[in-house]
Design goal:
Shape: globular
Helix content: 55-70%
Strand content: 5-15%
CATH superfamily of the largest domain: P-loop containing nucleotide triphosphate hydrolases
Number of domains: 2
Number of strands: 7
Number of helices: 9
CATH class of the largest domain: Alpha Beta
Structural class: alpha/beta
Distance between the termini: 13 Å
Order of helices and strands: EHEHHEEHHEEHHHEH
CATH architecture of the largest domain: 3-Layer(aba) Sandwich
Radius of gyration: 18 Å
Largest sheet: 5 strands, parallel
Strand order of the largest sheet: 2-5-1-6-7
Length: about 190
Amino acid sequence: MIIGLTGSIGMGKSTTAAMFAAHGVPVWDADAAVHRLYAKGGAAVAPLAEALPAAIEGDAVSRDRLKALISDDPDTLRKIEAIVHPLVAADRAEFLETHKGQLVLLDIPLLFETGANTRVDKIVVVSAPSDVQRARVLERGTMTEAQFDTILAKQLPDAEKRDRADYVVETTSIEAAERQVAAILDDLRGQTDA
């Protein structure tokens, strides 16, 4: 069984994925896959160097340079996606093959937005009140309110994600989230045993 885990920025998705992992569930992380692909020797470095030489720094793909290129020319994003999305899909397929027959979790921030929701058996949405979400993101000190609002505008609204979920994990407290993850796993394992 494949669980798709998603949630808007600042909802506690990485923390929730770690809770599933702590229960022995193999986790594939889309963001981590992109980091591996962009790192020195990663599969995305050579094709991106060919298509966008300015994106390369120190034999690796620079996310900051990619952001700058995208802001200069929005069509650049389509070029990047055409190169990176198939590599991410291959990385995910390799993970699924390695863990064939197991209950696994795919941590995909843009699960609905990319259509990946059609390739999972169950969907878990991580959620928190909007004021908690905003505070979490801005406390990181890595983006401005305007940048946060821009990212949020590109993501499916939380209410819609919740409506489309099989399970929702409220992340207002670690303890409550842990209890919810344990209950979800009990339910899913009960379904697979039946």
